[in-house]
């Protein structure tokens, strides 16, 4: 090893889901929305003034923070936006988790948390989920340097009821509690109303799932003006212009169309419930997901086998090898009705051929 290598920051990066680009594929592996963004987004894109691209964007991203503040009925000074919620979460880790005490997050959760903590040298403790993959609020009542968890959790899809979310926040008033609500719009109850009671709460959401804009990269945090100020201080110490002009403009259009947002998420919820019924019929086991994916296992067929068989048919789902407790599960994103029907039909046939399902 060269001497200079000793001085390099070495990290084990997060592994995102595959992004194959085949026209015939059914892509159920990265929790994207199967429907296009709101019509206003396409319309605005057709009228982009390219001359304006000469100019830097607004560093405060006022139009977009304003539109988000209006939608959620909070102050503009309570909103921070970033390049996807990954960016917002990374900035939040950097800003709020600055203690020698470990931050706490579940053992089975979004696998970016330990990557950021390792990279930023934040000590952490993984708190085991119970045997039903539930977060136990009581486990988060120990000394710590901060708390972060997704609600609904990923990749399990399990929702923590709001009173338990509050229990965790109330028990940790001396640190910042980040509730990562990437999937909250698919049937969960947001922690946003708790902001009136707790100034140590930061709620993080994204345009990638319920607003069909994963490719645009927009995420946001809502918290007390003081927390947002600290987040902005860190952002401006890192990169003043995280959001480009086009993204800001299109993001405003996406958030303004409430009717389209409601309609799309309702469609996904309906398809999810239909998929649950079908998977149950085929013998799969899973919890009551309130997200846009289902985390399921089949007691008679290894997950890896199903993953490979599906992939051969250009149906992509996600399989995680680690931790071991989830190695036999597949995370299946909810697509359109037609996609989910093709997915279920394939499984039905596969399990029939294996003599696991009998007609
Ligand atoms: N939080 C959770 C729990 C997620 O699953 C994801 C999606 N990978 C994100 C945050 C980040 O999403 P994005 O950066 O697209 O907003």
Written overview of the protein:
- The protein is globular, with a radius of gyration of 21 Å.
- Helices cover about 35% and strands about 15% of the residues.
- It has helices spanning about 40-45, 60-70, 85-95, 115-120, 160-170, 225-235, 245-255, 260-280, 305-310, 335-355, and strands spanning about 25, 80, 105, 125, 145-150, 175-180, 200-205, 220-225, 285, 295, 315, 320, 330-335.
- It has two domains: about 25-35 and about 260-355, Aspartate Aminotransferase, domain 1, CATH 3.90.1150.10; about 40-255, Aspartate Aminotransferase, domain 2, CATH 3.40.640.10.
- With about 350 residues, it is of the alpha/beta class.
- The longest helix is centred in the last third of the chain and has 24 residues, at about 260-280.
- The protein binds 4'-deoxy-4'-aminopyridoxal-5'-phosphate.
- Homodimer.
- Belongs to the class-II pyridoxal-phosphate-dependent aminotransferase family. Histidinol-phosphate aminotransferase subfamily.
- InterPro entries: Aminotrans_II_pyridoxalP_BS, Aminotransferase_I/II_large, HisP_aminotrans, PyrdxlP-dep_Trfase, PyrdxlP-dep_Trfase_major, PyrdxlP-dep_Trfase_small.
- It catalyses: L-histidinol phosphate + 2-oxoglutarate = 3-(imidazol-4-yl)-2-oxopropyl phosphate + L-glutamate.
- It is an enzyme of class 2 (transferase).
